[in-house]
Amino acid sequence: MNALLKIRDFSLFCGQNKILDNINMDVFEGEILAVAGESGSGKSMLARSVLRLNDPDEFRLEGKILFEEEDINSLSEKELAKIRGAKIGMIFQEPISYLNPVLKMGRQLTEAYIKHKKVRKNEAALLMEGLLEKLKINNPSAYMKSYPHQLSGGMAQRGAIAIAASCRPRIIIADEPTSSLDVITQASIIKLIRDLARVEGISLIFITHDLQLVSKLADRAVIIEKGRIVEEGCARKVFDSPKSKAASCLIRASVMSNFKESTEHKKTILELRNLSMHYKNGRGNIVRAVDDISMEVLEGETLGILGESGSGKTTLARIVTGIQKPLSGKVLLEGRDIFKLKDYSRHVQMVFQDPFSFLDPQMKIEDIVAEGMDMIARKNRHGRAKEVARCLQKVGLDESLKDRYPHQLSGGQRQRVGIARAVIVNPRIIVCDEPPPILTPSRRCGYWSF
Q1: Quick check: do 3-254 and 265-341 share a fold?
Q2: In this predicted structure, what is the pLDDT of residue 258?
Q3: Going by CATH, does the domain composed of 344-449 fall within 1.20.1050.10?
Q4: pTM of the predicted model as reported, rounded to 2 decimal places
Q5: Banded model confidence at residue 177, pLDDT cuts 50, 70, 90
Q6: Mean pLDDT along residues 137-151
Q7: How does pLDDT run across 407-434, given as a tens digit for each residue?
Q8: In CATH, what is the architecture of 3-254?
């Protein structure tokens, strides 16, 4: 087998910090290569480096990345544009953060077809509708008329997968593509990506922290820890007989502890009465996102709300947190209507599904975490900094990250910033909109324990 992509003595620096350290790796034609590691290990930075997506003013690199024997790092932007999307496609971890919010999905989905395949808009739309059907999107035409903000995280991710696969590139880099999908859909998406790789001869670089998935999906696996490759080999062998501590930790953490608490003799703290939320989609049809829902939340309990992508879970969460008003019905906090309470956000906080889309890119981490506290109770600078450091430590982040910006953190680190931001005001209720999937298994266990 010929190596389609060769990474030789590659290192990546951010200032004086070494993000990636002397990476040597091959990707062969038609193979599925998994790159696994904990949050912040450097796996996503490696994926972005292949397409030279890291800011050249912020990052410095050494070594070579050879695609079809041509060094990616020596190409001009014009030459690189002919490779991005056409020969190397990428599925990003957080689709909402890079889909254009003011353009309908149809225009964004067909852009690669029109640019690289030189087809007309109508033909591109038909080709894309066929691909969307394979991705289990029931009404492709309506989907293409939607804006990104009208889609759930899972539905937006399907669009991202469609964009990457549209031109049948030689390599697809998938940066945790199922992190925001429901369990039922995850299996079908993984199968689709795997079948594309096998049938079309596409090489797949699969970035993940799930070694169980690696053992079932990949041919080979590379384990990264602190920017260095610590283990490499047959995926099944790495899973069955790990040689590195990093691989062993990922495997152990994939089995979650069984959390269970008694809810006897606990009072009702939140009550939902006959909540409904309907809206019109792109075709003018009524969508019943939430339809006459009633439930109670007891003090100190953990309530799980399950459903497929697009079933209305996020809409319900937005209503409960007061972000969105329902069409009808009430949300009562200890018997009081939440939409009549001025300090409701002090009692109820939300951890969002997509951490990058709700973190202000121009604010430092310290200011993001302290934002809620600043609005509710003014503290002196020393007290504020001390509280931020405490919350960052609670969610497993080093205090030194407080001076960084969101784009300088990994997806898992951004998610933990979102958790710290929610807990710093000591709320009575925390609404979590599917945050753990973006965390690595060990962080996920720690998250639920916390």
Answers
A1: yes
A2: 46
A3: no
A4: 0.66
A5: confident
A6: 90
A7: 888 877 888 899 999 999 889 999 988 7
A8: 3-Layer(aba) Sandwich (3.40)
Spans of all domains in the chain = 3-254, 265-341, 344-449
Q: Which pLDDT band holds residue 210 (cuts at 50, 70, 90)?
A: confident
Joined together, the tokens standing for residue 337 give: 């209507």
355-380 pLDDT, tens per residue?
667 789 899 999 999 988 887 766 56
The fold of the 265-341 domain, in CATH, is: Rossmann fold (3.40.50)
pLDDT(443) > 60: no
